């Protein structure tokens, strides 16, 4: 699944602006708020706090973990726009009120702004993270 074209374009513009000037213009911040609604400001806060970590295994598999404002760690899969947080399940999947939760938006924004923490993990560690998430949900 992919984001709507307007959302993809906005993220591209944010990436470009940030590369050129190390900041995001107000016009793009307004666009972010317009497209992503109430998730925009909390997502920017998570980026500012450097709460997004990309985990990469030797085989090249990656996933993201976001330390939420509650102090809980959520696992995000940017390739399929999925997050393990309750808000994603409710607002995005059940109600279709939002495109994304603040955690996934923070992943996209931190990618655009080069603000991801990087962590190398073994294949076994990555598998354990994925299995732990499955147990939490089951």
From TrEMBL:
GO molecular function (one): zinc ion binding
Record's keyword terms, sorted: Metal-binding, Zinc, Zinc-finger
Gene Ontology biological process: double-strand break repair via homologous recombination
Residue ranges of domain SWIM-type in the record: 74-112
UniProt GO cellular component terms: Shu complex
Highest taxon above the source species: Eukaryota
Pfam annotation, one family: SWIM
Name of the protein described by the UniProt record: ZSWM7 protein
Gene that this sequence comes from: Zswim7
């Amino acid at each position: 699944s992919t984001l709507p074209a307007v959302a993809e374009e906005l993220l591209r513009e944010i990436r470009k602006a940030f590369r050129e000037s190390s900041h995001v213009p107000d016009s793009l911040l307004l666009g972010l708020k317009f497209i992503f609604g109430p998730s925009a400001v909390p997502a920017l806060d998570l980026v500012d706090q450097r709460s997004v970590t990309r985990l990469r295994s030797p085989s090249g598999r990656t996933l993201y973990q976001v330390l939420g404002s509650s102090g809980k760690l959520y696992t995000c899969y940017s390739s399929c726009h999925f997050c393990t947080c309750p808000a994603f399940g409710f607002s995005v999947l059940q109600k279709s009120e939002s495109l994304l939760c603040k955690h996934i938006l923070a992943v996209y924004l931190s990618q655009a702004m080069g603000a991801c923490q990087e962590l190398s993990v073994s294949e076994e560690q990555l598998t354990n993270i994925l299995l732990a998430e499955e147990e939490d949900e089951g």
